[in-house]
Amino acid sequence: MEVPTKPKTQIDEISHSLSFSTSIAGDTSWDKFPLFRHRSRQITRDTWLVSAFVLLQIVIFAVTMGVNDCSRNSNGHCAAKLLGRFSFQPLSENPMLGPSASTFVDMGGLFWNALVEKHEIWRVLTSPWLHSGLFHLFINLGSLIFVGIYMEQQYGPLRIAVIYFLSGIVGSLFAVLFVRNIPSICSGAAFFGLIGAMLSALARNWNLYSCKVSALVMIFTISTVNFLIGFLPYIDNFANIGGFISGFLLGFVLLFTPQLSQDPPPHKGKLFEDDMKSSTRRKEMFDRPVLRIVCLVLFCGILAGALIAASWGINLNRHCNWCRYVDCVPTRKWSCSDMTTSCEAMVSDAQLTLTCMANGKFRIFPFTNISQARTQDLCTLVCS
């Protein structure tokens, strides 16, 4: 025998809806979840933006190696010769398995003479898309996939694209202020912008997340690995610093409460009420328009100041003797000094002898038919 159930009236449905929406509006931290959730618990949203960034940077790296053409421009003196045109420069020249310094200049890397004498400010836009080598590409894209997919799923592609592009530009402008006569690339600036935005988003929604310490350790580990790589040749750490600062500020401006797809738990008494009030107070503190305005003004001021300083050709290395060591660690393989290299070339018996005019070092190469740009690359290698 079926027990008749009381049909729901329209008033009951409205009352239930209002009570549910009120609990959500009063506090968005009704169920904490880890910052880096398991794939089965992540929000099912397309991540086409990060996928496009990864694919684009792989294509640009392949084009860079094709332009480098080590087998022809270096007379076969290459690493991984089986790759032919796409083989890498010797490890003594580029330890990251990548192209030569002259190729970085041709592809739009930052270079003091090109920026100051030729006023090629467009390099600020091209430098964030270059990588120093295959190792750098793998580490950078792996970190981008790990962080970028999460950020795009939580906050959508539009805001992440804005943070990514602006952080790359500001990072490049930071690098211009410390650039030397050695080509430098700024592909890490945009990634560090996402790291900075993730930290600001974590601060905004602190009580929404559990396992916050482990998340901070994970972010710190990824950032440290990418920053340490910046001490190797051609990778600019000042770009990473500028990208991080801009991303941190833009995170407070653009990133609001992340997308949640969980049901609120039942009422848990006074303890839950106290936690809800604490979370609401914290969220209100970070959601104040004053904070967003201040961060936006700071970001615009940094962007304008870096742009003006770069257009005036200001070089902060002249006022800071130790700043070069933020971007470089001197070894026997390369030097951190910003010197103009010049060599005396002598050709005999199908051999090229380059003698550095600064320190008297010389080296004999088993070829002679190379371009002037390639000769300058080898001269820099001899003098370092």
Shape: elongated
End-to-end separation: 94 Å
Poorly predicted tracts of residues: 8-30, 38-44, 261-277
- Number of strand elements: 5
Strand proportion: 5-15%
**Neighbour order of strands in the largest sheet:** 3-4-5
> What's the main sheet like?
3 strands, antiparallel
Give the C-alpha Rg.
Answer: 27 Å
Transmembrane segments: 47-67, 129-151, 158-176, 182-203, 215-235, 241-260, 290-314
InterPro entries: Peptidase_S54_rhomboid-like (IPR002610), Peptidase_S54_rhomboid_dom (IPR022764), Rhomboid-like_sf (IPR035952)
GO molecular function, one term: serine-type endopeptidase activity
Membrane topology: Multi-pass membrane protein
How would you characterize this protein structure?
This protein is mostly helical. It folds into 2 domains: 33-327, no CATH class; 343-383. 55% of the residues lie in helices and 5% in strands. The chain has 15 helices and 5 strands. The protein has helices at 10-26, 48-68, 70-73, 101-107, 112-116, 123-126, 134-155, 157-178, 187-204, 212-229, 237-254, 270-286, 289-311, 324-327, 372-383, and strands at 33-34, 209-210, 343-348, 351-356, 362-365. Strands 3-4-5 form a 3-stranded antiparallel sheet. It has a two-stranded parallel ribbon with strand order 1-2. It is elongated and about 75 Å long. The protein starts with 9 loop residues before the first helix and ends with a helix. This is RHOMBOID-like protein. It is a multi-pass membrane protein. Belongs to the peptidase S54 family. Residues 119-255 form the Peptidase S54 rhomboid domain.
